[in-house]
Amino acid sequence: MPARAIVLTGFGINCDNETERALERAGAETRRVHLNDIADDPAMLDGYHILAIPGGFSFGDHVASGKILANRLRGKLGGPILKFVADRKLVIGICNGFQVMVKMGILPLFEGEYRQEVTLAWNDTCRFENRWVKLRIAPDTKCVWLRGMDTLEVPVRHGEGKFIVKDDAVMERLRANGQIALRYIRPDGSPADGEFPFNPNGAADDIAGICDPSGRVFGLMPHPEAYQDGTNHPNWTRMENLPEEGMGLRVFRNAVDYVQEELL
Amino acid sequence: MPVNRIEVAMKGGRPDPAGVALCARLHEDLNVQVAEAWIIDVYTLLGDFTADELEKVRADLFTDPIIQDSAVNKSMASGYDCVIEVGFLPGVTDNVGRSAREGVQDTLGRALAEGEVVFKSTLHALRGVDKDTALRIAQKALANELIEQYVVKTAEEMADLDGEPLLALPIVTQRSEVVVHEINLEVDDDALLALSRDMTLALDLTEMKTVQAHYRAPQTQAERAKRSLPANPTDIEVEVIAQTWSEHCKHKIFSAVIEYTDENGETREIDGLFKSYVKATTETVSKRVDWLVSVFEDNAGIIKFDETHNFALKAETHNSPSALDPYGGAMTGIVGVNRDVLGAGLGCQCIFNTDVFCFASPFHTGEIPARLLHPRRVLRGVHSGVRDGGNQSGIPDINGAIVFHERFLGKPLVFCGTGGLIPTTTAGRPSHEKAARPGDLIVMTGGRIGKDGIHGATFSSEELHEGSPATAVQIGDPITQKKMADFLLEARDLGLFSCITDDGAGGLSSSIGEMARASNGAEVHLDKAPLKYAGLAPWEIFLSEAQERMTLSVPTDMIDAFLDLARRREVEATVLGTFNDSGRLECWFEGKLAGSLDMEFLHEGLPRMRLQAKLNPPAPPSEISVESNDLAADLKAVLGSLNVCSKESFVRMYDHEVLGQSVLKQFQGVAHDGPGDAGVIRPVAGSKRGIAVACGIAPKYADLDAYSMMACAIDEAVRNLISVGARPGMIAGLDNFCWPDPVQSEKTPDGSHKLAQLVRACEALYDLCVAYDIPLISGKDSMKNDYKIGDTKISIPPTVLFTAAAVLEDVTHVATMDAKRAGDYVYVVGETHDELGGSEYAALRGLSGGTAPQVSPLGARAMYERLHKAITGGLVASCHDCSDGGLAVALAESAFAGGLGMDVDLAEIGVKSAVSALFSESQSRFVVTVNPGNLLAFEAVMAGSPIQRVGTVMAEPMLRIECPGGTHVDAPIAELKAAWKAPLAW
């Protein structure tokens, strides 16, 4: 039996096609489903192992990015999603999906219930930008999506990606739990230390993504689904050997491997 | 209904990046120093809400508890000297307010009643400014009085107000009685013309008399009597005729019979420019290419991509609305052209956007004529509109340009293009065939109808004048459109409709009027149409250009499934009537016939214009002969000229990778900042087949020679594609003409020359495209790009955007523009001539005259074939198009993008002067670098075309160019790059 993934769509989500493709290429049987169709039949989630909330501009980023979709998801599917997580299944939120997750409070999920502890605020530049970044996987992270990975190069495409915690205690807890998943670094591998454009938004501690204490629920601002083919990389014509597959696919392969090892 | 106000601000002590950005912008744009600014979001809730409910939406919806504080009915502003609140005027699309309303419903878990709404406004609290300065900031930077209202208050005044709302609620209160008027055409000629002007019909006397004659005809009178309609037309009938016959919709100038007198005084008759040149090009080329699917018939041109997919392409302009409201006008432009592609065939998925803008210098220091905005503000607004429209729709922007010329002060040009992909068959049918059949239902989907954009089609068929209507401006709503697009693609795959088209210029009157041609008639019930607010007359409903709407024909046995899917996707869909074969377009309102038009008269009754064109004798040939004593400084200045310099700060703000298909991006090279020549994507997963798209535009040559302007635009677009590896014979083109009024009249005394320039441009279009085997698959023209108020008249330079796209067989065999390795050889491909006329160098030195570049398409075609072979054969390390700024610019860009130096000798390049060698803008040239190991093979493939090995790439980061006459350039690449990046690094 293959791993099965469901990709959320509707209301301005717009990276659903490539997220679906990434999961398929990673070996998951994948379906793109409109939020309203899941809300009409929440039991549908039981048939899946992976839930992806893709990037986009849900509700135009109006009020605050991800906020309206977060409220709608929590209102319509709050219970079923918590059950999904409790069933040791995997969730990923990318870019707008990450914004949705922190605002609905399913990340960092310290106590297993919805509570907002962190946010993603306007970039320090106060502008939406599309640029490639280099990331280091936190060595002690519990994130199962990033197993065996050291660095990652993928694009960011957001206006509101500055990771901010409520207070020092939250940051301490994230660190202690291995919930910090990946950080922005410089091309030479040293920490970005908040410096633009390496850290593209001014995120605290250069944090680009976090996971829940189990490592199965994962959110990040950069777009791993945007680097599936070697030719996606901005410098592929300068590479000696063009890789057939982009580094971003590895993230989805990790998820499928996890499902196959632990859930099937 | 009660009004409550929720204000949201950053928590005290948190930096407010929006406030910081505003201070920086005010300093840059208005030279105003603001000590500190805070941006406060204001949500005004109209409706019955309990205190608990208000508290719940404040806390759970509007406030981010980590970084924001907020309050109900209490201001969050403090420590300021002045506040400026900006909100919309009644009836203007309020996207945030609409989303917030949905959020309120979700948060409270109940539906809001009709009329319970949320309005968004923004409070700017400023410290360190007085009230006069704040007023200036409000007018010049924050509010556009066409669509927005604002209030400025000092801290003391605010204290006195004690919480009173600052702005009036933007509710449309006009409840005019809805009546259908009769329009009396039994008047004299002067009164007919006055009628045309007063009703913004934009019809001339011949056209008005044609309408008059039609209504006088006994047969018309008999038909009207049968239907109990008055002898005179009703308002809706006149409006529909005017809009259908508008220049915007009928392309009257491109269809006109033209008596053309060339520069030698010889006269001939041209049987329509469109037919004789545009269509003729495609007819000729279509015999030599086998991939055309649908041209000129649909909302976009459609060609074959692979065995199972077709590719659609379209570009549009949205100039006049962008002049009045740059943000809303440009956003409407981009989401509008997206709908053209969504409405092509049975509905294409949009896969990329392109955008090209033309402005006056943002550093313009002269007077700004009445009703015009400073070009800096136009640039910022247009860019933001296209950015938000594209990004929020999830369509990557992959190619474009920003072009500057002083005469675009009179009218900015905003070109938006879109590519789309569609399976060759959908739901078992060929996806490019569609037709409304008698009996099919007329269904409108998407947004609601308001007074937005009424008379857009006729308005854009006039110059910008004192009375240009503010209602011509619309604001796009990308999210409503995105929901609709997702829904329509689902419905398409289920085979739920028989025809689809977009509601653009002319609104329903145009979409239904066009679709009804296939069935030969339609009956429309306008009182069924969903409105944003009450009080619209039937003609207003029919002509409104409110955005985000598509019209479909749905077979009756599909309608339930169609409406059900729409409901589940939260997309409004309404049955408005039925297509029939009555030969008439009939509009009903509340059970009464409001108008009945003969389809044949409506679509074929427009008399063809006859126009005179006479080309002014050209200026005597002159050569620009100029010397320079500091060529390196000149090169830096040319690199820093507005047309050449980097546009990265703007382009970075476009999402250029969503959909995950990106192969070549706008920026290339070691630091991802060199200017790429063409965008490339691979749109079908698992396939290496790709699409390359590029643009060419050259208004700067127009005054010297309109033929050259057109030829250079085409050659530039083609060069850009060849640079990345495209093959001649696989390239499709789009022509978008933007002209100053070319019809001779009192207000346009030089009209016949401008029309002759149009003839010359069309000749070039035919000559080049036939030589290059480029079928024109779609196009558009915008013919009234003038500004006239009082004695001030500004006409844009005649401009054509040429968009070119090519299917690539294997995207892994493309080239990029950055030099790759030290030791590679540098070649110049193509011939260099003394062609400084219209060049960036000439503009920089204030030199007029000279020769505009000439294109020799036959030689170029052969060269392009060879270069294609060299690139796809892997013989080329880098290839860069040589255009604005000449060879020196192309060499510098290739070098600094690669982070490498170059040592180059141009002494034998073919011209005698150093300035020409470096800065002449001769066409059909490239800078190519080649690995020494490929030298022989490269030269063998290129044999027969003019190539010259001029030097080598070197590790030392210097650009050294030996020039004719013993002079030279010697400059560090870092300095060149800095000069290129500086001017627009906003």
Descriptive report:
Chain A is α/β, with parallel strands linked by helices and 264 residues long. Chain A has helices at residues 16-25, 35-40, 67-86, 96-104, 168-176, 249-263, and strands spanning 4-9, 29-34, 50-53, 90-94, 118-121, 129-137, 151-158, 162-165, 180-185, 207-211, 217-220. In chain A, the strands form two sheets. In chain A, strands 2-1-3-4-11-10-9-6-7 form a nine-stranded mixed beta sheet. Chain A has a two-stranded antiparallel ribbon with strand order 5-8. By secondary structure, chain B is an alpha+beta fold. Chain B has 31 helices and 41 strands. Chain B is globular and about 80 Å long. The two termini of chain B are 45 Å apart. The model of chain B has no long low-confidence stretch (mean pLDDT 94). The interface between A and B is large, with 62 and 64 residues.
DSSP strand content of chain B: 15-25%
Strand content bin of chain A: 15-25%
Helix content of chain A: 25-40%
The oligomeric state of the chains shown is heterodimer
Helix and strand run of chain A: EHEHEHEHEEEEHEEEH
> Which term fits the overall shape of chain A?
globular
pLDDT averaged residue by residue of chain A = 97
The number of E-state strands of chain B comes to: 41
- End-to-end separation of chain B in angstroms reads 45 Å
Q: Which range best describes the helical content of chain B: under 10%, 10-25%, 25-40%, 40-55%, 55-70% or over 70%?
A: 25-40%
Low-confidence stretches of chain B are none
Structural class of chain B: alpha+beta
Instruction: Specify the biggest β-sheet of chain B.
Output: 7 strands, mixed
Q: What is the gyration radius of chain B calculated from CA atoms?
A: 29 Å
Number of strands of chain A: 11
| Major sheet strand order of chain A | 2-1-3-4-11-10-9-6-7
Mean pLDDT of chain B: 94
Major β-sheet of chain A, in short?
9 strands, mixed
**Helical stretch tally of chain A:** 6
